[in-house]
Known about the structure:
Strand content of chain A: over 45%
Helix content of chain B: under 10%
Oligomer: heterodimer
Largest sheet of chain A: 7 strands, mixed
Radius of gyration of chain A: 13 Å
Order of helices and strands of chain A: EEEEEEEEEEE
Number of helices of chain B: 0
Mean pLDDT of chain A: 91
Number of helices of chain A: 0
Radius of gyration of chain B: 14 Å
Structural class of chain A: mainly beta
Amino acid sequence: AAGVIQSPRHLIKEKRETATLKCYPIPRHDTVYWYQQGPGQDPQFLISFYEKMQSDKGSIPDRFSAQQFSDYHSELNMSSLELGDSALYFCASSFFERAHGELFFGEGSRLTVL
Amino acid sequence: AQKITQTQPGMFVQEKEAVTLDCTYDTSDQSYGLFWYKQPSSGEMIFLIYQGSYDEQNATEGRYSLNFQKARKSANLVISASQLGDSAMYFCAMREPTGNQFYFGTGTSLTVIP
């Protein structure tokens, strides 16, 4: 079965550079979430989209932006990168109306800022 | 207030024994979902088990069971017959119908000892 696809899996950037992470949700899933997980920490919610519209916003810095496109894939854009942005970035998708509503996670994109 | 509380940062269990990972939650909603995820050292987030707030029976999935005590707002994960491959971080999570967000606990690191 198709899973959530994230790219790239690993990314190394310098301070003040920009980075873009991509997420392709499971087909027919209508909700996409982005999470940031620092070393040894729990995942922190950044932002979510339902049917291509932003549905909820968490602790996403102003330097970050995200959108969901017509084909339901989502991109997280990060500018003016800081050392503290080094983390594992998860994308997850779900089918909002489904009874269980569990999130299916991608394998994550590991960003290292030098 | 913390939505999900996991009070055990680290746990050890002997191989083949059972272990209980604690989770308490805070919500004023009547309808909600509770989830457990496993995160091995490789980083991916693996869905383990789900419990709906209206489910009268405790959820079970193979060696995983969820000890759901609604009045106490606890949703402990029980892993029976522990295996070395169970060594990982375990996150308890909750989904509320209002908003579109998953709340994660801080996780419990489980180490299975041969």
